[in-house]
Amino acid sequence: MQTTDPRDDGVACDLALTRRDLLLSGAAGVAAGGVAAAPIPAPAQPTPNPMPLHPLSLTVNGQRHAVEIDTRTTLLDLLREQLHLTGSKKGCDHGQCGACTVIADGRRINACLSLAVLHEGGSVTTIEGLGTPQSLHPMQAAFVKHDGYQCGYCTPGQICSAVAVIDEVRAGIPSHVSADLNAKPLLSAQELRERMSGNICRCGAYSNIVDAITEVAGGAA
Ligand code: FES
Ligand code: FES
User: Fold this and answer.
1) Same domain, yes or no: 114 and 163
2) 197 and 156 belong to one structural domain
3) Gap between the Cα atoms of 87 and 132, Å rounded
4) Cα(28)–Cα(35) distance, rounded to whole angstroms?
5) What is the average per-residue pLDDT within 206-215?
6) Ligand 1 pocket, 102 CB below 6 A?
């Protein structure tokens, strides 16, 4: 087939025909088959949990719980996320603020630094287990009386810590500032400041917190 374009010489005519034929055949292909659809990716398969769950049994506030947890779960996350005890607060999640303080087997700990699996068979007390709005623990009542809080975020940890501090003094456990490690410790102002130094209050309610603890300790230490 020859082009009718008078400007074309022989070689150009052949090339023009070839281009035209190519375009025509391409257009015909599109009309016949449409544009090829992009391949549809296969649906993602659920990936199996790489960490098998671990059975855990512990007592929280006098109630037995049997749960299954990822072994990487902290005690704080177990309390808040699985047992829905949100009184213990997550402040720093790094053991630096004390907002997550709970009492585990009689000792205060930062729940954010303790793996839940370490408490198999153990007993944990949170702020919810100390008292109720109708029947406050003496330390809770003293915090209310002395206005030992402002925003209240640190308060559950402060109160759990303060309750355990009094038990530590009663048990004769010295602190880093106890002058005589063999003498029964007294809850002096210096001892109180040292023992409560892991509980930070960003509202700065410290003087009222000290008043509250001192009042309760007066009848206990
Ligand atoms: Fe645990 Fe701050 S949240 S110490
Ligand atoms: Fe607000 Fe302590 S009362 S951080």
Assistant:
1) no
2) yes
3) 12
4) 12
5) 96
6) no
Please give the distance, rounded to the nearest whole angstrom, from the Cα atom of residue 100 to the centre of ligand 1: 5
* 110 Cβ closer than 6 Å to some ligand 1 atom: yes
User: Could you say which ligand is closest to the alpha carbon of residue 150?
Assistant: 2
pLDDT class of 12 with cuts at 50, 70, 90: very low
User: Which domain does 187 fall in, by range?
Assistant: 131-221
Residue 18: how many other CB atoms lie within 10 Å: 10
Q: How far is the CA of 220 from the centre of ligand 2 (A)?
A: 25
Q: Do the Cβ atoms of 56 and 68 come closer than 8 Å?
A: yes
Q: 56: helix, coil or strand?
A: strand
Contact at 8 Å (CB) between 74 and 84? Answer: no
Q: What pLDDT does residue 30 have?
A: 47
The better pLDDT of the pair 220, 81 is held by 81
d(CA 27, CA 20): 11
pLDDT above 90 (res 48): no
Which ligand 1 atom minimizes the distance to the CA of 89? 3
| Residue 129: pLDDT over 60 | yes
CB atoms within 10 A of CB 45: 6
Query: Coil, strand, or helix at residue 103?
Result: strand
Note whether 170 and 105 are same-domain residues: no
In the structure encoding, which two tokens stand for residue 68, read together?
Answer: 């299954």
**Model confidence at 76: pLDDT above 60:** yes
